[in-house]
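Handout, tutorial session.
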Amino acid sequence: ISELPDPLGKVLAQWQRPNGLQIERISVPLGVIGIIYESRPNVTADAAGLCLKSGNAVILRGGSESFNSNRAIYRCLRVGLEKAGMNPAVVQLVPTTDRAAVGYLLSSMGEYLDVVVPRGGKNLIKRVREEARVPVIGHLEGICHVYLHESADLEMAKNISLNAKMRRTGICGAAETLLVDRAAAQRLLPEVGAELAAAGCEIRGDDAVQEILPTAVTATEADWSTEYLDAVISVRVVENLAEAAEHIRHYGSGHTECIVADDQAAADQFLRQVDSAILLHNASTQFADGGEFGMGAEIGIATGRIHARGPVGAEQLTSYKYVVRGSGQTRP
């Protein structure tokens, strides 16, 4: 994070009006960011570092499971800030595991917070969205798809499908649904299915999938919109790219989608047509990560369309202001 370019004070755009006014759009901090997260104490260091890099103050509220680790990391951060000649108060840690503190942070601190970023399970993020009195950056679910186009290379299809699902099943970038073109289902599914099954993944498929993979469990309507976060994947045969895109639009969460295809025109169409925060061509959905994007770290993946979208790093924790330079102009 420390080696990233400074995201502040950047001239994002500039132009001159006919009346001589010079206008610039310049990046600035968001202000005070509240970050509510569960379990992993590394978020304490990552979030504080990203907020400091982007010129923001931060209030951290970690989970009870890692409370002592969070406090230890927080103390180290304060020592480092003091040694650097910075005000240690720019990083704060909520000093209690009481769940009521989250409610107070969300509903009664709008005067002090500019934005809230939740990082954790579905219930936490849902609660933050419902109770927050300030804007929220984040995502509710990671229902990610891998689409095997009829032009997909078999070895690549196997490798990407296996990695996207099984590398780490419990992260938001794990694939939950596999879509396969009907024209390539007989060629691709037997070996892709065998790779997944050998790795311990349960396959839930539609009728067409079960004809090819007899051991597949029958998929229900609910499976297409389920974030398993486990060694389970739903598999559907689709007629073409348009049907795959429609399935993703209907059942997806706008997080991350991948197309495996040798046909560049088809890949380009998928990348244009599908409206999710992260789209990949011939690469695993598990690359949906700020560190893998070269951002140093991230404090989550945003799936909204306002402000940040995709991995939220230091640059995404900035806003902008307009600076207008004149030479005495008055408006007629």
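The second record follows below. Compare its token runs with those of the first.
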Amino acid sequence: MRRTKKRNLDFILYRASLLFFVVFLAGCSSDDDEDMGNWKIRSVFDGKPRSSSAYFSIGNKGYTGTGYDGDNYRVDFWEYDMDGDYWVQKADFPGTARSAAVGFAINNNGYVGSGYDGVNELRDFYTYDANVNSWSAIADFPENPRREALAFAANGYGYFGTGTDGDNDRKDFWKYDPSSDTWTELFGFGGDKRKGATSFTIDDKVYMGTGVSNGVYIKDFWMFDPETESWTKLNSLDEEDDYSIVRSNAVGFAIGSYGYIACGTASGTLGSVWEYDPVYDIWERKTGYEGTSRQSPVTFSNGARAFVGLGRSGSLYLDDVQEFFPWEEYDEDD
């Protein structure tokens, strides 16, 4: 009888130990997934802290300017050297001081336009020649002036759309041809109206989503093919129960064959980061931004490296910058 009781006790202890071991391994696996991705502090922005700045990247240089610093709308413009990790002030943006403008780059030229000057939404656009550090006016956007729009470049053209004109959120898209300095309206986007959306480009395809309209955060996600200038709807940003990607005023960037959405706002500022796999149309959570959570930051990327910084958290305007390493484990001592 005593021997039987001892065997039963030994069996119970064995099962308990096995269960603990399985739970421990599961916990370790969960921690590893959650901790994948690391942020490293880079050179603080030399200009005044601000949010809602325009930005674009040319090679290993990032450019940003305009924005709002809590008191004033800005026109100063800056270059960030990814290799040297330093900032250089460039020629001021020549248009009206503004925030919530867009930026994109075609070859060695950057383009900045639209936005808000504190009174009116704007439609004017300018091109920046990085080789000679000079600005020139180009054709105004021909439709309603707007702010918090979306812009990207592909196949030697600029694309611009969505945003708000102050009375109505928009969903139209337009193509800018730098060779003829003309705008042409495109048709075929079946998504929702929105402002504060974001995008990234992987293998010449542009992926677009997020944003807000009439107080509702937008869940649809789309792929734009520049070759056919057509849109394909992908899985929604709330496709899985554990997704928390929906937001506005975030930034998007690509590293290698993956896309990323970082920071933004959804009933409060966010620091979370999500990685998109275009092969399987799925998302994975990565280590969140290690600085203050923020909305309306800027991002620079050359396709192999990516940097996120500036923006605001409530009434706190920010000037810090960090670089993201998606395949490194989180290190709090960086």
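Points raised in discussion: The chain has one helix and 28 strands.
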